[in-house]
């Protein structure tokens, strides 16, 4: 009995030292495109209504294996402002944390091609000790003050902040996700990430990105990841962390729905007791009201394939008196983007491919213009 109490006390001590930080360092590596969970400034990235559901299981096989669920929703409410909200459940053995907060982001344009977004989050953080989840719970002395649940059940105010800088294909993110918690000193946990997307021909995009986590109490972690996307539909990613673990991920995007799966291989110290960590993310993006099906933004350096895909959606949309002006506006936008589109004429084969793409674009433009003329 004394041995059980000792193990429990040590675990509780570790939990108390980490306090709100337990929610959760390693979940903030975000292998599957869920940066909103670590930086409230990401509420202002992209258009439309964005919803993401993320589930992760860490260190399966360990008695106090970690499970984390996150549901987040965010959207711009104007050109310069965005709102979001999150629900998080983080369970580790007998301990559970529930967090609910709202996020606000303000987008400041610096130049035509760059912006700086400020983000704040605030909400409640509830800690619980679920005694019946302790191994051999039936053998414990229920009168033991160590099991006094009221001592470990608390509800506190928590807040975080973040910055997101964007310049063309470069994103730089810095955030303090757990900056402030009631009755606690300022939390020094810092998350930083740098993303840079490179176009490789007309079909591929390659994004190397670096992530750094300054973690109080335990060691800080740096991660290097490389993501490759094919035609904005299928992507794969590989990563390495300085804790000597590696990860592999893959995902698919179909229309407005994205699905991703990732697996982290533990380092040799953990490999004998755990098979690793799994993560699944489901994301949904809904276009803004009043916009046509093809009206989500294209980057200023859109590829010809991206323009073809947008024109294809627009050509399938029935023209009515209500949406006619929106379709015209979208068509003009695409024509402007076509003038800036990146083309690769570095070889005869590439030049021939570009020629075919331009012919297809011309056909679709004529089709849409014909549909507009025929609308009664």
Order of strands in the sheet with the most strands?
A: 1-2-3-4-5-6-7-8-10-11-12-13-14-15
H and E string? HEEEEEHEEEEEEEEEHEHHH
Compute the CA-based radius of gyration.
Answer: 24 Å
Taking pLDDT < 50 over at least 5 consecutive residues as the criterion, the unreliable ranges are: 1-24, 290-299
Give a short account of the largest sheet: 14 strands, antiparallel, barrel
Summarize the helices and strands and which ones pair or pack.
Elements: H1 2-18, E1 49-58, E2 66-76, E3 81-92, E4 95-111, E5 114-129, H2 149-152, E6 154-167, E7 170-181, E8 190-196, E9 198-200, E10 204-214, E11 221-230, E12 234-241, E13 245-254, E14 257-265, H3 268-271, E15 277-286, H4 304-315, H5 324-340, H6 348-374
Antiparallel strand pairs: 1-2, 1-15, 2-3, 3-4, 4-5, 5-6, 6-7, 7-8, 8-10, 9-10, 10-11, 11-12, 12-13, 13-14, 14-15
